[in-house]
Specification:
By secondary structure, the protein is α/β, with parallel strands linked by helices. The protein has 7 helices and 13 strands.
Length: 245
Amino acid sequence: MNRTPPCPPEILLAGVGPGDFHEAGRSTVSLLERLARLGPSDDVLDVGCGLGRIALPLSEKLGAQGSYTGLDVVRAYTDWCVENLCLDPERFRFQHADIRTSFYNPNGATRAEDFVFPWADASFDLAIATSLFTHLLPGAALHYLSEIARTLRPGGRLFASFYLLDARGREAAATGLTDPTFSSPIEHGLLHDPAVPEGGVAHDEGWLLAALESAGLKSASVHPGRWKALPGDYHQDIVVAVCAK
């Protein structure tokens, strides 16, 4: 008999976005298969894993040779995953990092720009970063891209979501009707709320593509998100890139 998938408590769900928790995870895994060539033997890194929304359906796709490592700045999230998802701890690991962010962890010990991923070079085949860069300022985003590239194997893939300010993105932001809204300019982007800078960040598309290249990641495809009032598979824009190192 199939076990009913656990659902996090409402007090924790408030921090990981709206929508059906399990359906959102299944939908994202389907996109990983279609856009990022997710395979059963992949070693997967999920940066900003939250409450395991992706980890749970991913466990049905990864075979005995595959593995999953989730990282998050909110200890309550990683603790809940360890205690409730009931996944094989040898292949599914969750790690907390005390990184400072005005939105999720304002008293964190380490600046995002200074955080060194605790894994060796070329450890993973696929890195996932959904709703991560949307909460990183450009300097931190550039550093994370470099760390992701360092820990990916040659030919490894990055599947990440952004609010991209291409022509359509800037047009959408100018309406003031997007969710979230973006109206406060910063270098290389816009903020949702300057009082909580990491609460929502939109990045200039040209800057991001150059940042990917600088980190050693070759952009493979960009898929517009529904936040721009366009049809799409995901609310945010999805970027798939390949490690060129």
